[in-house]
Amino acid sequence: MSGLATFPEWAAVLVALLVIAGAAITLIGAIGLVRFGSFFERVHAPTLGTSFGAAFVLLASAVYFSVLQARPVLHEVLIFVFITVTTPVTLMLLARATLYRDRVEAAARQRPPAATGDSPGPGLAGAPPAENDSAP
Amino acid sequence: MSATIIFWGVAIAQVMLALAMAAATWRLLRGPRAQDRVLALDSLYLSAMLVLVTFGIRTGSTVYFEAALVIGVVSFVGTLALAKFLMRGEVIE
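Output (structure tokens, whole complex):
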């Protein structure tokens, strides 16, 4: 906190606005995670945080340390690139796993008509019906 | 003056990120099926990483950046392993 006395005010305002904007976008994504009805709607909501929420907070950090140390500090780009590359991979894999599970459970519900033990819960409201019979 | 601006901006942002973590925790505990919990855990990882970045801005040290980077990497590996587990029932085939 040594150089904070000479920290210029325009940079302070910029850092504060960027960090608040990023946190607000992440909060909106998390609220969407709570409010949406089915899983396939919910899987979209946290990507607000992984795209622009993380971008604004990391940009605020980069601006802050660049002005504080009077040299370009760009290592926050590393986190942003990593998050941007990995999030679609994990979420697409998760959505495919969900499709697979829905299909398996629908097939298991159709085959033995008597053995319907588990209720699927409200998360399965928009689940697609079983389209192929390849599921075990 | 600029110290005050940064202090309050970061404080407001940390409150918002804490609310985001609370929402993700609610979905993690409540979520009707396993994939909802995995998604909530991924969102929780992201919010924790951003909270660490804001702690780095608040204290002015770059130590928190490395912790945030490690959390990002662990979040990727953890969510990938859980998605694989939901798909097949085992992680390494």
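The mean pLDDT of chain B is 90.
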